[in-house]
């Protein structure tokens, strides 16, 4: 009786540890199924599960050995049946472990693919932004070239106006020489020449003011387009 009482304690403890390891393995398998990655985290979880399986096998071997040492055949067969049930449960846990690993690896692969696609989308967006900036710069350049052409045309028109005025001035001087040769109309010629000279000065002044206003307008437009923050 003393031996029976002494043997009941390790048998009960062994059963309790088998049940505990079984529950811990199930929880760890669920953790693997829910693991978001990376692979290093999955490797750590698998190492823990592997250790639990080794501990469970050790306890099953101890329980099987205890069953074989039982004096009563009925108790022996009952314990062996219990060991067999535990082994079947362990095989079921191993199958669930493999399935959880497969599902987790597929999820990690899909996540890495999604991250890769997102990275490609980001690069594509950056490329589109650069192309848009290049197009904007090209449009600004074309606008500046248009302004430059317009300024060139205005300058050319101004030169033509000045040339016209110069021609008019020469005509007036020639007329003045002709009037000098006319003794009867010298006074009238002088008055006319004075009048034309005054008008010429006024025209030059007006043209100068017009050119100054035009240049100021062009500079203002360039400032607003090229340096809008000033």
UniProtKB/TrEMBL annotation:
It holds the Pfam family Sec20. Residues 39-89 form a coiled coil. It is a single-pass type IV membrane protein. It is found in: Endoplasmic reticulum membrane. The chain crosses the membrane at residues 205-222. Keywords: Coiled coil, Endoplasmic reticulum, ER-Golgi transport, Membrane, Transmembrane, Transmembrane helix, Transport. InterPro entries: Sec20, Sec20_C. Residues 136-226 form the Sec20 C-terminal domain. GO terms for cellular component: endoplasmic reticulum membrane; SNARE complex. GO terms for molecular function: SNAP receptor activity. Its main location: endoplasmic reticulum. GO terms for biological process: retrograde vesicle-mediated transport, Golgi to endoplasmic reticulum. Belongs to the SEC20 family. This is BCL2 interacting protein 1. It comes from Nothoprocta perdicaria. The lineage of its organism: Eukaryota, Metazoa, Chordata, Craniata, Vertebrata.
């Amino acid at each position: 009786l003393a031996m029976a009482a002494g043997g009941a304690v390790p048998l009960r403890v062994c059963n309790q540890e088998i049940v505990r390891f079984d529950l811990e393995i199930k929880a760890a398998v669920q953790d693997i199924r829910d693991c978001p990655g990376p692979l290093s985290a999955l490797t750590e979880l698998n190492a823990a599960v592997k250790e639990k399986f080794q501990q469970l096998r050790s306890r099953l071997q101890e329980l099987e050995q205890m069953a074989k040492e039982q004096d009563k055949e009925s108790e022996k067969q009952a314990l062996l049946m219990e060991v067999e049930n535990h082994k079947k449960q362990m095989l079921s846990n191993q199958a669930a472990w493999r399935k959880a690993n497969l599902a987790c690896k597929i999820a990690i692969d899909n996540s890495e693919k999604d991250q890769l696609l997102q990275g490609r989308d980001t690069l594509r967006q950056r490329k589109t932004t650069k192309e848009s900036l290049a197009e904007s710069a090209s449009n600004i350049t074309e606008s500046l070239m248009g302004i430059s052409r317009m300024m060139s045309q205005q300058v050319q028109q101004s030169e033509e106006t000045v040339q016209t005025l110069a021609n008019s001035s020469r005509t007036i001087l020639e007329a003045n020489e002709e009037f000098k040769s006319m003794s009867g109309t010298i006074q009238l010629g002088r008055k006319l020449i004075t009048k034309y000279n005054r008008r010429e000065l006024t025209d030059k002044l007006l043209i100068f003011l017009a050119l100054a206003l035009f240049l100021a307008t062009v500079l203002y437009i360039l400032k607003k387009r090229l340096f809008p923050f000033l």
